[in-house]
């Protein structure tokens, strides 16, 4: 029997299962998750960084009186400082933009964690599985990898490489 593993962001997963008649419960679980339209820019505008360069960190918080958002700086990546900033409402755009993306960022609120529990209970029903950071704990690579390992373990319990993780 074939299995389907949906390994996307939660917004796309919800869109996909919406079209599957017997996945109403999974759709309802995913529909608990709400989103913000988040915009990310890659740039070199020093205004997004602390004036005192000795305070520059990998994660730098910019606060506009209402919202705070991160600017990420990985100094080992380039000779010239390049930053990645979240642009929130009221934030001015940086001067030199090298790349810009807008996407649906899940809100990690109570419903988000409620949805995780629901999805966990629904995993494997009708051979339908969900993988992605939103199915585990908080926003991180580790959550994404753990989600894949967990579903991989269910689908291939004899796999020795997955067993190494002690799931
Ligand atoms: C700007 C930004 C910075 C981040 N920085 C960090 C960080 O520093 N550290 C950290 O731990 N986490 C970070 N994250 C979170 C990061 O996204 C996750 O840790 C990781 O990428 C999640 O993996 P994932 O597999 O769940 O989702 P994704 O990496 O988003 O993978 C989902 C994939 O599904 C594909 N897809 C969507 N719809 C469909 C479809 N219909 N059909 C086929 N494919 C589809 C997408 O193209 C995408 O490739 C960051 C996220 C963002 C947006």
Write the layout of secondary structure elements.
Blueprint: E1 4-6, H1 10-18, H2 24-30, E2 35-43, E3 59-63, E4 68-73, E5 83-87, E6 97-106, H3 110-122, E7 128-130, H4 141-155, H5 160-163
Parallel strand pairs: 1-7
Antiparallel strand pairs: 2-5, 2-6, 3-4, 4-5
Helix pairs in contact: 1-2, 2-3
Bound molecules: flavin-adenine dinucleotide.
Q: Classify the helix fraction into a percent range.
A: 25-40%
Bound molecules: flavin-adenine dinucleotide
- Taken in chain order, the helices and strands follow as EHHEEEEEHEHH
**Beta-strand content:** 15-25%
CA radius of gyration: 20 Å
Main sheet characteristics: 5 strands, antiparallel
Average pLDDT for all residues: 95
Contiguous helical run count: 5
* Major β-sheet strand ordering: 3-4-5-2-6
Cα shape: elongated
Number of domains: 2
Quantity of strands, as a count: 7
Q: Strand pairing plus helix content: what structural class?
A: alpha+beta
The low-confidence runs, each spanning 5 or more residues with pLDDT under 50, are none
CA-to-CA gap between the ends?
24 Å
């Amino acid at each position: 029997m074939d299995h389907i593993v949906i390994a996307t962001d939660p917004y796309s997963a919800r869109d996909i299962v919406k079209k599957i008649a017997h996945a109403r419960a999974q759709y309802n679980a995913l529909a608990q998750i709400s989103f913000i339209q988040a915009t990310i820019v890659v740039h070199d505008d020093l205004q997004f960084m602390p004036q005192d360069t000795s305070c520059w960190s990998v994660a730098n918080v910019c606060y506009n009186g209402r919202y705070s958002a991160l600017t990420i700086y990985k100094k080992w990546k380039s000779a010239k400082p390049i930053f990645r900033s979240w642009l929130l409402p009221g934030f001015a755009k940086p001067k030199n933009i090298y790349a810009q993306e807008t996407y649906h960022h899940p809100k990690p609120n109570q419903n988000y964690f409620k949805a995780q529990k629901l999805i966990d209970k629904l995993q494997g029903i009708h051979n339908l599985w969900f993988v992605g950071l939103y199915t585990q704990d908080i926003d991180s690579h580790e959550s994404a990898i753990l989600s894949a390992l967990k579903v991989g373990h269910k689908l291939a319990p004899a796999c020795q490489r997955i067993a190494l993780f002690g799931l």
